[in-house]
Structure formats: structure tokens, C-alpha cells
Amino acid sequence: MICGDFNIARDRIDSSFWDEKHPGLTPEERAWLSQFLSKGFIDIYRELHPNARVFTWRSYRERWRAMRIDYCIVSDELRNRVIKAEILTDIEGSDHVPVMTELST
User: Fold this and answer.
1) Predicted pLDDT of residue 27
2) Which residues of the chain have pLDDT under 70?
3) Hey, which residues are catalytic here?
4) What does the radius of gyration of the chain's CA atoms come to, in whole angstroms?
5) In sequence order, what are the residues at sequence separation of 6 or more whose Cβ sits closer than 8 angstroms to the Cβ of residue 43?
6) CATH H-level, domain 2-103: superfamily
7) Distance of alpha carbon 27 from its chain centroid, rounded?
8) How far is CA 1 from the centre of its chain?
């Protein structure tokens, strides 16, 4: 499992705005993330919440600018151990909110 700030919004649902020249939204960045995931990794939040429009980062200056750029990515072999994956939007303290994935033992 890899969790962290990838600074890439995979799809339009993952951003409150769309400008393919903006960092995190460029075709090259999104292609890199798609290629990485194609190697047997899963964006587990999106798999479990396919239609959720929830963001993990929000601009301090322009509050309407928000993106889901923080991920918990699991290997295919861990997929069946995932109990839940959440974005904890009620916890603030920076321009990012925590992401969480719970696995069974």
C-alpha cells in the first residue's frame, strides 16, 4: 500500500475546475498515474466510491479550487483485505485533509 500526496487529479470528478495546463491536471501527469495503476495497483477510494465528488486539497487563496490529489493505492493482492477507504473531510489543519484505508488482518 502506498499513501500520500501524488499532486495529480486522475479524472474530472477529482477536481472542482478543469484546466489541462494547471499542475496536477496535465495530460502527461494523468497518463503517468494511469500507467502506474495499470501495473496492478488500485486507487481504492475511487473503486469503493466511484461517483463521490470529494476533494483532499483546497487552495487557501481560492477556496473554490479543490482537487483529490492524495491517494491510498493498494496492490491487487491487498484488494480483498480492504474494509473501507475514506477521505476525512471533517479534519482540518492544513490545505489537505487526511485519507484513510483500513485493512483486515
Assistant:
1) 98
2) none
3) 5
4) 14
5) 10, 37, 71, 73
6) Endonuclease/exonuclease/phosphatase (3.60.10.10)
7) 16
8) 14
